[in-house]
Amino acid sequence: MKILYYDCFSGISGDMNLGALLDLGIDEKYLIDELDKLKLNGYEIKVSRGIRKGIEGTKVDVILEDLHGDAEGTHHHQHLNGENVDGHSHGHIINKHSHHEQRNLKDIEKIIDCSELSSKVKELSKKMFMKVALAEAKVHGKPLYEVHFHEVGAVDSIVDIVGASICISYLNVDKIMSSSVELGGGFVKCAHGIIPVPAPATVEILKGIPVKLGAVPFETTTPTGAAILAANVCEFKDNNNFIVNKIGYGIGNRDTEIPNVLRVMLVEENNLSNTNKAETEDKVFQEIVECNIDDMNPELYEYIIDKLFSEGALDVYLTPIIMKKGRPGIKISVLCRSAKLEKMKEVLFRETTTFGVRTFKVDKTMLERKFTKVNTSYGEVTVKEAHYKGEKIKSKLEYEECKKIADSRGISVREVFENLKKEINI
After folding, report:
1. What is the pLDDT of residue 285?
2. Given a cut of 70, is residue 110 above it in pLDDT?
3. Do 206 and 233 contact (CB within 8 A), yes or no?
4. Which of 107, 135, 158, 326 is positioned for an S-S bond with 201, CB 3.0–4.6 A?
């Protein structure tokens, strides 16, 4: 299983995220070409190398311009100066535009919907903006679409959030995980004046997510960074058992006491050496939430399932049932970790017609899994092997890889599966 892991020991902001994902190997020209599909004016992007406490990585600055096309300085309330504090900058400037303005959520959704970006990138971008919009609306006591964003409504944050969607979609990982999130401390100046760190919107977005406070007396996680995590990460966990395949560092804007960098890693779960522990954790932390529905428009189920997965469900499934008085109905079952239980209940109560849910703990025993790379006539493919009591008892091809092969060669997925099974003898 291919996993993108965010190590937020020094927090996360939109520009640090872009830097880290580019540092991971995403082609910056691809990112810029995709961002151009927004037809957005008012910014230029500077990509450079930087160092924080001896750690080198990629720094991305989204530089706004005034009406005359002159650079005004960089974005958010993070006090960029166009050059890394350590003096290690040697970047280049790409994708120059002019004019920027503040926008509300409807304006932003229109820009995204009218672009030529893929539907996946559009939906993910709007999901992240919605996270921020809901938080800002609650903090300021305003209706959702009446909120005019200060820190997250201008061109810079559209670039940060849509850029994050483009990069995450490009990586096409099976799962996104994160460490607990450092928020920093002290106070910060914004459009409303002096406010405490973490900013109220940041805290609101990260409700239910493990955080840390006070590593440095500065803001380390912005609302944009918080929204990127809240919309994409399905599991927050510090103690992991990974095989690390690739590492990227996104450079922040301050030279703080701890390295002001965001570390992202492409990893695989290492189940071989710790199977018993993983099995025990599954038994402790997994729950099932269920409810029976017999009075809801069935067109809504797809949306509800997607919503549950986006909020951290491990599995969601529907079962046809016969209820009292012979009425046909649907049982919605949601598998989740204990930390996500209340969020799953909230989605079911808000999005379905149910008046009650039932919950119970479940024990899940998984076979030991091993992922191996095999050279074939189609190139390198991944084979998932399952072991029981030390013996390999079954193997399986990864569907997404077979689908990519089929698409690139213009043949059916069934043909790819059959040919690979013969080649690999599984």
Report:
1. 52
2. yes
3. no
4. 135
84-98, 246-260, 364-378: range with highest mean pLDDT: 246-260
- 276 is a domain residue: no
Is the same domain home to 50 and 189? yes
Domain identity same for 309 and 225: no
Q: Domain range holding 373?
A: 368-424
> Any idea which residue has 């995709």 for tokens?
34
For residue 58, the SS3 value is: strand
Task: With a cut of 50, say whether residue 49 has pLDDT above it.
Answer: yes
Question: Which pLDDT score, from 0 to 100, does residue 426 have?
Answer: 83
3-state secondary structure of 61: strand
CB 22, CB 49: distance < 8 Å? no
* pTM, entire model: 0.60
DSSP string, 146-199: G-B-SSSSSHHHHHHHHHHHHHHHHH--SEEEE--EE-B-SEEEETTEEEESSP
Could you count the other beta carbons within 10 Å of the beta carbon of residue 391?
Answer: 8
Whether residue 256 is found in the same domain as residue 323: no
Side by side, the strands of the sheet bearing 379-388 are: 368-376, 379-388, 391-397
- Residue with more model confidence, 342 or 91: 342
* Cα–Cα distances in angstroms (integers) from residue 346 to residues 37, 231, 332, 349, 413, in the given order: 36, 16, 14, 5, 38
What local confidence, expressed as pLDDT, does residue 91 receive? 42
CB 15 within 8 A of CB 61: yes
Q: Establish if 274 belongs to a structural domain.
A: no
Contact 287, 337 (CB under 8 A): yes
